[in-house]
Write a structure and sequence with these properties.
This protein has one domain. It contains five helices and three strands, in the order H-H-E-E-E-H-H-H. The protein is globular and about 50 Å long.
Length: 140
């Protein structure tokens, strides 16, 4: 996979595949751009270190997140997890229920979007959200 991501044409092919998948949920293309170097504004990018790949975020020169990438599917999961999070937040803002923990709508919508893209991604997203809720339950 590292060789694929070092090849410029394969990067273009991957980007087109991501845009194609994003059309399933009408994801804004600007939220699906794969970066390969830091922008230092918190935007995630793919970093190659030796024989390992990481989905990394850095802001003002400080690394704030680093997730190892074991497969192309996992890279796409990370990309769409971020895009669906933003889409779900937009949806929640437009459909907010006064007095209700905003995460009820937000998490539900994100799982719905991820499930449309891939049942496995939807299940993984649901499990990650359950983990969040186990330590930070809904307030209302």
């Amino acid at each position: 996979m590292i060789a694929q991501l070092k090849d410029l044409q394969k990067r273009k092919d991957l980007q087109e595949k991501i845009y194609e998948i994003g059309r399933i949920i009408n994801a804004p293309r600007s939220w699906l751009i794969v970066l390969y170097q830091p922008v230092n504004d918190g935007s995630p990018y793919v970093s190659i270190q030796g024989e390992e790949l990481f989905y990394t975020s850095s802001e003002r020169g400080c690394e704030i997140s680093r997730k190892p990438i074991s497969s192309l599917d996992e890279l796409m999961y990370f990309i769409f997890e971020g895009a669906t999070s933003m889409m779900a937040l937009d949806y929640e803002l437009d459909n907010r229920v006064e007095g209700q923990d905003f995460r009820r709508i937000y998490f539900s919508k994100q799982i719905e979007l991820m499930s449309k893209l891939s049942p496995q991604w939807g299940e993984r997203c649901r499990k990650e959200i359950e983990e969040i809720l186990s330590s930070s339950p809904y307030s209302s």
